[in-house]
Write a structure and sequence with these properties.
- The protein has eleven helices and 20 strands.
- The strands form four sheets. Strands 4, 5, 6, 7, 8, 9 and 10 form a seven-stranded mixed beta sheet that branches.
- The radius of gyration is 23 Å and the shape is globular.
Length: about 450
């Protein structure tokens, strides 16, 4: 069993990277905001209100696909049971947890009492005994699994609410509308990491689930790799120390947010997830944090000003809700604790050298966002039989991956195309591509690399 030190409350820092100089007539400013949390200590001498404080500070529900297809081959179900057992062993003492068997319905396998068990040597042993009784049979209705996970997590007094979802197939026993309704109901209530085992599941379906619930997504093409992947996922979940953190952007009169995207470690567009947080302020969800760093790309439209003028384009705050304090009038957000702040500035100049200089962080992540986009477009074109477009898009992807040093993406691209000249993006489509390689490229297309310091 893995051991973990007692959870510490992280401290947050916010750093803004930008070229604040705009040429005459320009009205849009970009910035990369790096948010870093480091473990240990407290903020302002007091524990954060949303922090895990030992005991049942975290709740985790593991959802295991037990549909009929999990029996083909039989090793798949066995690997899923073994991987879940490894995840259970990785639970920190005091963590609240449950295991759900998912088919066309959802059933709590352990503790099977409508609530959560508290991790200890005894409950871990009991959970692994219960896993041995899991068998495959039935259909797939993932929205039902998610709703049960939500109900179970709601029974625990926990700050961190997380789920792990494993499936090997498509969501064939409920409508897309039912799944969307379940995701809408669960969004903001818990985070969820999703894994597809084998090659018979739908990438867009699983990435949509992970995106809506602010979790990770990946393919485990060979079921034998499930145990190591589940252990790594659970270790990361056990490292989370504070939940429900939001990026709050305030803009002055006349300015507005064009977009907000997480750009590292993965690309995730948060623009449409804004909730109003008072006059000219909006919150964008970031989920749960441990000891980690993430980058966000923010674009702000500002009213054009004369050369020599400067203005505050946006104030960036990292905020955490304060439980039990009512929301302010005219705002959908309640009282918050500010964990860190940064400023985005705009200065108008007639110095062409200053105004045309592209900030390296902004340039890098603009390229990484384009990389994710052209991979997805290239794969879509390939599936549609538009080979010329597929070649052009995937060639551009190879060029961007090479230029940015994204070696992991470059390696997966090389399994789909023959690279003739990486620097110029000259490629040939491979005549035959394994399903696992194509799905791996699509699933991991949004993974980015950080700016080289």
């Amino acid at each position: 069993m893995a051991t973990f030190s007692k959870s510490h409350v992280p401290q947050f820092s916010v750093d803004v990277y930008q070229n604040e100089y705009l040429h005459e007539g320009a009205g849009e400013v970009s910035a990369i905001v790096t948010v870093t949390s480091t473990g240990g200590g407290t903020t302002g001498g007091r524990p954060l209100p949303g922090a895990a404080r030992g005991g049942a500070g975290a709740g985790v529900v593991i959802m295991v696909d037990c549909s009929g297809s999990m029996e083909y081959p039989p090793t798949k179900m066995r690997n899923a049971r073994d991987a879940t057992a490894v995840a259970v062993d990785t639970l920190r003492d005091g963590t609240a947890f449950a295991i759900v068997a998912g088919t066309h319905s959802a059933r709590e396998v352990y503790p099977a009492d409508g609530g959560l068990a508290i991790a200890s040597d005894t409950t871990r042993h009991e959970a692994k005994q219960a896993l041995r009784r899991l068998s495959a049979g039935g259909g797939t209705a993932i929205g039902t699994w998610l709703r049960l996970a939500d109900r179970l997590l709601a029974t625990g007094d926990v700050a961190i609410r997380h789920a792990i979802l494993l499936t090997d197939g498509r969501n064939e026993h409920e409508s897309p509308e039912d799944l969307r309704a379940a995701l809408d109901a669960c969004a903001g209530r818990f985070t969820c990491d999703a894994r597809g085992v084998g090659t018979d599941w739908e990438v867009k379906e699983l990435t949509g689930i992970a995106s809506a619930l602010l979790g990770s997504v990946d393919i485990v093409a060979d079921p034998a790799g499930l145990a190591a992947d589940f252990q790594a996922m659970m270790e990361k979940a056990m490292g989370k120390e504070v939940a429900d953190v939001a990026l709050r952007l305030w803009t002055p009169q006349g300015s507005q947010i064009a977009f907000v995207k997480q750009v590292a470690p993965t690309v995730e567009d948060l623009t449409a997830r804004r909730t109003e947080a008072g006059p000219r302020a909006g919150d964008y969800p970031t989920g749960s944090w441990g000891d980690e760093s993430r980058d966000y790309h923010i674009s702000v439209r500002v009213p054009v000003a004369d050369v020599g003028q400067e203005m505050l384009a946006a104030r960036v705050s990292l905020v955490l809700p304060t439980p039990g304090v009512p929301q302010a009038e005219g705002s959908s957000a309640g009282a918050v604790q500010v964990l860190g702040q940064g400023l985005v500035r705009a200065v108008w100049t007639d110095d062409m050298a200053a105004s045309t200089r592209i900030n390296p962080q902004v340039a890098h992540y603009t390229g990484q966002a384009e990389l994710a986009e052209v991979i997805q477009q290239g794969l879509e074109a390939r599936k549609a039989g538009d080979l010329d477009s597929a070649t052009a898009k995937l060639g551009r992807a190879v060029q961007l991956a090479s230029a940015s040093g994204n070696e992991d993406t470059a390696k997966v691209l090389a399994k789909v195309v023959d690279v003739v000249d990486a620097a110029n993006g000259t490629v040939r489509l491979k005549a035959k591509v394994a399903d696992a390689d194509e799905m791996t490229l699509e699933t991991r297309s949004t993974k980015t690399v950080r700016v080289k310091k």
